[in-house]
Amino acid sequence: MDRPYPKPLASLCLHTSAVSSISANASGRNLLTGGWDTFVGVWSTDIPEADEVDEVAYPTFDADRKKRRKVSKRDPNGPTAAEKAMLDLAITSNGRMIATANGDRTISLFQVGNPAPPTQLPHTSPVTAISANPNSPHHVVSGCMDGTVRIWDLRSTTGAVESFVAVGDQQKAEQ
């Protein structure tokens, strides 16, 4: 007997290339998506009553699919990560800041609802992972391709609070 597979409730239509990260805010009312097209999508988790996407623009191959969501409009001045692929993203516990891990050796910090350009935090190689501290809206941890892990205090973007570098089977803290 075949097991029934879960059916999608909605499809999120926005990105023009691979989606590399999905994250939810603390309340679960919004999702963030990010990908290689450098765009950050902010989505409501409410299921729409009807399709919000033009069938010609986003054709579907699933006759049983439910409603499709999209960002209210794609703002050309809206959040974009960097010139290279965005590899991961996180939202702070208070929902006020989005941090993206970028392939161009930076972390981009966006203030939610503020169209100002993001603050950039440097890394030594492509940033492959980022995580927000669930207990503090001011701290994120990032990891990059060369094995460096950094702890950041977002109230001061002059440098990381601490850096750890993988050295063989050991780890050492950089001062």
Helix content: under 10%
Instruction: Report the structural category.
Output: mainly beta
What's the Cα radius of gyration? 18 Å
Question: Mean pLDDT across all residues, rounded?
Answer: 76
Give the termini distance in whole angstroms.
Answer: 60 Å
Short description:
With 175 residues, this protein is mostly beta strands. It has no helices and 14 strands.
Describe this entry's structure for a reader.
- This protein has no helices and 14 strands.
- It has 175 residues and is mainly beta.
- The protein has a five-stranded antiparallel β-sheet, with no helix packed on it. A four-stranded antiparallel β-sheet has the order 6-7-8-9, with no helix packed on it.
- Mean pLDDT is 76; it is low at 56-78.
Structural topology:
Elements: E1 10-12, E2 19-24, E3 30-35, E4 40-44, E5 67-69, E6 86-91, E7 97-102, E8 106-111, E9 119-122, E10 127-132, E11 139-144, E12 148-153, E13 162-167, E14 170-174
Parallel strand pairs: 1-5
Antiparallel strand pairs: 2-3, 3-4, 6-7, 7-8, 8-9, 10-11, 11-12, 12-13, 13-14
Features:
single chain; 175 residues; mainly beta; five-stranded antiparallel sheet; four-stranded antiparallel sheet; 14 strands; globular
